[in-house]
Design goal:
single chain; 258 residues; mainly alpha; 12 helices; 72% helix
């Protein structure tokens, strides 16, 4: 009996959530490295669009495709991240995949924290493992697209929202609003999700005044992030474009059952 208990303790020490996460991280990174090294660079239109916007933003200091006309094709956050990346490594689109891997790792860390906070560290580790090892998730790493950054932002936003549900600190709601704004600038169709999640601040046993203050902080910080880009669009195009010109089409395609 004592020998069995000793074996169980040793097994438990080996198979801890931390050990699982380290193993999954190693396997996931190796799998991504293999996929990236065996995927030829292809000139997809959307990939070239993001690459051109990012390079022009970094080299010309202007959000434009042709170097002369302002653009509002997509949200500005992902091209801005790419521009910062190119400023460090140079114009190397083939290296963008490794930037995406870092977004994948960040998303998995956030999912782990959500699972551990709501349930148990093992639940968080298994959820993070399922996300990081999901094969379809790898396909976007070799493409110049915003999905990897979006997944990381959504995971961080989810974590911040979960923290808000059990926190009395106003900075938690401000952080959630900040992440909501950044996510909208990455993928404008998440505006609807931001409004829905703001309603979560109205649940709980707190007074109506405190709920309103929290919701107001969330909304204020979110708008503080998004509105400057909306103003830029108004000055450039003479019309109200909250983030990008494709929001309506994106919402329609995402909700059309056919």
């Amino acid at each position: 009996h004592e020998m069995t208990q000793g074996n169980d303790r040793r097994l438990g020490g080996i198979w801890s959530p931390t050990a699982l996460l380290l193993l999954v991280c190693a396997l996931g990174v190796l799998a991504r490295a293999w996929i990236i090294s065996h995927t030829p660079r292809q000139g997809y239109a959307i990939d070239d669009l993001f690459d051109t916007l990012a390079w022009n933003l970094g080299s010309l200091g202007w959000f434009t495709l042709d170097g002369a006309t302002p653009s509002a094709h997509v949200g500005p956050l992902y091209p801005a991240m790419l521009a910062a990346f190119y400023a460090v490594v140079g114009h190397r689109p083939e290296w963008v995949s490794y930037l995406h891997v870092s977004f994948d790792i960040a998303a998995s860390v956030c999912i782990y924290r959500v699972g551990a906070r709501l349930f148990h560290s093992w639940v968080g580790a298994l959820a993070a493992a399922a996300l990081f090892l999901y094969p379809a998730y790898w396909t976007y790493d070799s493409r110049i697209r915003s999905e990897s950054l979006l997944t990381g932002l959504l995971s961080a936003w989810l974590w911040a929202t979960v923290v808000c549900r059990s926190s009395t600190r106003m900075c938690s709601f401000m952080t959630a609003g900040l992440l909501a704004g950044l996510t909208i600038l990455c993928k404008p169709v998440t505006i609807v999700l931001a409004v829905a999640l703001m309603g979560l601040t109205c649940f709980g046993q707190e007074s109506a005044r405190l709920k309103m203050v929290r919701a107001g902080l969330y909304l204020f910080v979110c708008l503080l992030v998004v509105v400057p880009w909306t103003m830029r669009n108004y000055r450039a195009f003479g019309m109200v474009i909250p983030v990008s010109a494709g929001v309506g089409a994106g919402l329609w395609m995402g909700s059309d059952p056919l």
